[in-house]
Amino acid sequence: MPPFNLLRFLAGLISLGLLAASIYLLWTFARGEELLDPDGVPRRVREDWRLWTGAALLAWSLLGRFPMLFVLARKDDGGPDAHHHGRGVMLQTPRGSDLHVETYGPAGAPVIVLTHGWGMDSTFWRAAKAQLGDRFRLVAWDLPGLGRSKPGRGGITLEGFAEDLKAVVDHAGGRPVLVGHSIGGMTIQTLLRDDLHFQGRLAGLVLLNTTFTNPLRTMVFSKLLLGLQGVLEQAMKLTVILKPVAWLANWQGYLSGSAHLAHRLGFGRSVTRSQLEHVTLLAVRNSPAAEAKGNLAMFHWHADGALERVHAPTLVVGGDMDIVTKLEASERIASVNPKAEFRVVRGSNHLGPLEQAAEYNDIIADFTLRVQRALPADAPISTAVERTRENRLFPDQPSPET
């Protein structure tokens, strides 16, 4: 989302400046300055403050993320924290996108298709895989341009994402529940806006911390950000052109911890160190040019009343602390569809589905079981399902169908 990657980029530039300053101070200390003593003999004088200041700045530039994590987040409670993809398949869509898709859980169980937010990838759903993978058929994919997925014709657009989501639904089979966080929810709305009849393929929709329009209109300081939209668009276009510089700034911000500070703004009060590290690492690992193109696409997007015409069961979930897609945006989405349910997660900021994963996953599970038929309690458990249960905490293991 625009605030985080822009703040991260600016913090990275500052970090690069401080790194350059540290190198300059250490170099000038090593070189010293030649002065003549009272006897006319030349002596090389070095100022100790240059050494200590330069060393401190260098240490902060390269190792600052460790104290930053200690200060900004709480100790982990043993929850899942890996940043790595599981073993999946590469799915080519009709528009030519190559999508990384992972599948977990028993065949025949209710199907849930998970679409992550912008700047993340499918590892965002690691807790969902761990907590829901023995009861549901989970299908998680990387949006084009992020993670291991590459966009096809048309590039990075909400309309392109919607077309790709159709292909993922076909791959998943059955009548799934579509779950989307942030731009994932916008992608679902785009799919139904452009192809309303597709809802007949679905059991339901779950929209998490998302919006119905240009996100600059529904985040904090919206009037200021809308006034700066032209500047932000030029900054995004410049990021695409200067991709190597942007990537360097992002990684420097990651090492110094300033990127962690930018992403901390998206969490509530209970974020753990592994969660903050996870989101920050994902954001800097993804291409800054791809992120910039996605932001530009969001700046000119609107759902155009898509959900007003939807009769599929819909659940809208918002966070009362969300600064990126404020609670009012979720309320508006729910209000236009009289059949939609609305839930508020207390203490949840924009990254609530990761920070408060257990609560969000319970909400998703409850809704899915109400709109899909669950497996019978006495259903036989195959060896493949047992293997899924054993391995669901380790997504680097093969899923049952692979």
Please describe what this structure looks like.
The chain has 402 residues and is α/β, with parallel strands linked by helices. The chain has a single domain (89-375, 385-391), classed as Alpha/Beta hydrolase fold, catalytic domain (Rossmann fold, 3-Layer(aba) Sandwich). It is 47% helix and 12% strand. The chain contains 16 helices and ten strands. The chain has helices at 2-31, 48-63, 65-72, 126-132, 158-172, 183-194, 222-227, 229-241, 243-256, 258-264, 273-285, 288-299, 327-335, 352-355, 357-371, 383-391; strands spanning 33-36, 42-45, 89-92, 98-104, 111-115, 137-141, 177-181, 204-208, 314-319, 341-345. The strands form two sheets. An eight-stranded mixed sheet has the order 3-4-6-5-7-8-9-10, sandwiched between helices. A two-stranded antiparallel sheet has the order 1-2. Helix 9 (243-256) packs antiparallel against helix 11.
Q: What's the helix and strand layout?
A:
Layout: H1 2-31, E1 33-36, E2 42-45, H2 48-63, H3 65-72, E3 89-92, E4 98-104, E5 111-115, H4 126-132, E6 137-141, H5 158-172, E7 177-181, H6 183-194, E8 204-208, H7 222-227, H8 229-241, H9 243-256, H10 258-264, H11 273-285, H12 288-299, E9 314-319, H13 327-335, E10 341-345, H14 352-355, H15 357-371, H16 383-391
Helix pairs in contact: 1-2, 1-9, 1-10, 2-9, 3-10, 4-15, 5-6, 8-12, 9-11, 10-11
Quickly describe the structure:
The strands form two sheets. Strands 3-4-6-5-7-8-9-10 form an eight-stranded mixed β-sheet, with helices on both faces. Strands 1-2 form a two-stranded antiparallel sheet. It has helices at residues 2-31, 48-63, 65-72, 126-132, 158-172, 183-194, 222-227, 229-241, 243-256, 258-264, 273-285, 288-299, 327-335, 352-355, 357-371, 383-391; strands at residues 33-36, 42-45, 89-92, 98-104, 111-115, 137-141, 177-181, 204-208, 314-319, 341-345. The chain has 16 helices and ten strands.
